[in-house]
Amino acid sequence: MVMTMVFAASACEQASQQDSSERNESGEVVEGGDVGVFRLQEGDCVKLGGVGNTDEVEEVGGFEAVPCDTLHDGEVVLVDDEFFSDRPEFPGDDAASDAATQPCIEALDAYTGTDYESSTYDIFTLVPSDASWSTLDDRGVICVGVTLDDSFERIDTTGSIRVGG
């Protein structure tokens, strides 16, 4: 499997706080829109676009969230706003990524009811950047599940990957 890592931050706090989607009373997206990383919720289906298609560290402010019955290439399986709350200093890109990997895999397994090593799913992990850590007090982790094809490429799907979903 391929492990995709992306570092979440936004130079503009406003972009990372926006949510132009429409949600029903249970919080599900019923009409798509741009959703900042600080407004993403577990169960949100998102269009990742080209983010994470390279080995480069990328900073993102958000994604387009869509109803899960619409084509999308990611689904938020975990949002933990306090993941790094016990750390007084930014741990660095690699350490932050490493710290989030296993918890994100465990969240993906629980969410999908599968075993990461033998599934067609991968995880796309968003952790704070140094900039979001210091300027936005970002201590969270967001785990996004993606579906892979036979050549381990991320593919668009419809429906939820949640077990029973």
Summarize the structure.
With 165 residues, the protein is an alpha+beta fold. The protein contains 3 helices and 11 strands, in the order E-H-E-E-E-E-E-E-E-H-E-H-E-E. A hairpin with a 5-residue loop joins strand 2 and strand 3 (29-31).
List keywords for this structure.
165 residues, alpha+beta, two-stranded antiparallel sheet, 3 helices, globular
Layout of helices and strands, plus pairs?
Layout: E1 4-8, H1 13-17, E2 22-23, E3 29-31, E4 33-36, E5 45-47, E6 59-60, E7 62-66, E8 74-80, H2 93-112, E9 121-128, H3 130-136, E10 141-148, E11 154-155
The helicity comes to: 10-25%
How many individual helices?
3
Tally of individual domains? 1
What is the total tally of β strands? 11
The H/E string reads EHEEEEEEEHEHEE
Q: How confident is the prediction overall: mean pLDDT?
A: 88
Task: Classify the beta-strand content into a percent band.
Answer: 25-35%
Structural class: alpha+beta
Basic shape: globular
Distance between the termini: 24 Å
Question: What composes the largest sheet?
Answer: 9 strands, mixed
* Gyration radius, in Å: 15 Å
Assembly type: single chain
Low-pLDDT residue intervals, each spanning 5 or more residues: none
